[in-house]
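Example record

One chain of 426 residues, shown exactly as stored in the release files.
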Amino acid sequence: MKRGSEKWVYLSLVCVVIALTLFPRDTRAETPLALDIAVAEALAKNPELQMLEQRVQSAAARASQAPYLEDPEIAIQTWGAPLSNPTAFDRADSNMIGIRQKFPFFGKLGLKEKIAMAETQMAVQEFHAKRREIIAGVKIVYAELFMAQRSIEIYREQLEIMRSIIRASEARYQVGRVAQQDVFRAQLEQSEIMNRLILAEEEAKSSQFKLNALLNRPPETPSQLPSDIALPGLTSRLVNLQDSALTQRAELKGAELEIERAQKSYELAERNRKYPDFMLGWDYARMPNEMDKNRYQAMINVTIPIAPWTSGRRRYEVEETLAEIRLARAKKETVRLMVQREIGEAFAKAEAFKRSVELYKEGLLTQAELSFRTALAAYQTGRAEFVSLLEARRTLREAQMGYYRSLVGLLQNVAELERAVGRELD
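Predicted structure tokens for this chain:
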């Protein structure tokens, strides 16, 4: 090699290194995005989950305030000061300073604390419900994107196959072994595959946008998924899943806590209706015009819950809490029926898709591929019609697409089943 050529090669390599350094390639799209990584990223970055987490902390702080008394009051008073000289306190009949403190009747603060703690736990269960909803949403959209990307691969493979068939048909037509109609059919089939490929690419973009929204990524961020996904486990019986949901589903736990909160509110309303609250006070008095100048006074104020002009309000508070108890119980029953329905539907669909996936893996895919290869060999040797070849190719494509549709259906319905039960399935 000449010295000038070596110099240009060296300069080219330097430019390549500088370009790679200054403009690094985004390898995130090239590294397959695993499902567990996507779920973890969504849980860490989803703004709805962060909002609910802050709501839990707020409710917990509010519950911690419940057992405390109200702030005490300091009272400063002067009696009998001359109006002509209002600041002449030494000429007033009495100058007092005292302290006041309100005390609720025994047990009321404890009930308020229990109500606040129940509300905190309700916020916790709302957080867990949203968490399971986000996990299920990521799995469902991930499966959609997986299906779209596999569809693109299949249509591209089918497109290459059709191009080979077109070349073979054109060669056979030139020697008069097939009619020109076979070439037109092959070209028409190629156009149909290209149209399906365009639709699959649009579906992939749509699914990518939805996944990026769940992961809180920029909308245009690409994600390349693995070429295959492990089959989820589905070994539990339906009755076991329904029993598990009664203890695991966050919405049911929240409904139980809502009943508990309503019952404690009823107890508090009953205490407010029957028992008074108190205010205790102590004052120090300075009386300049008296022989005994230093004095004190004590006080106790008692509320009257049975006063005729206020008792109606207390009675309606009790009726309100009783209605809240009935509402909470009805809500729990509604949630229980909804959970049973969701589990039953998702379990039936998951079982059906699981059997379908097993059927494809046990022989349908292999048989469809073998049938197409046989038809292609027979067509190339003139022992089969072009229509038979197209039918075999369509059967292979439908078998491949059917397998991935069943796999995606299984993934999505298992995700729905996990959300309905409230936990990951084994």
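Notes: The chain has nine helices and four strands.
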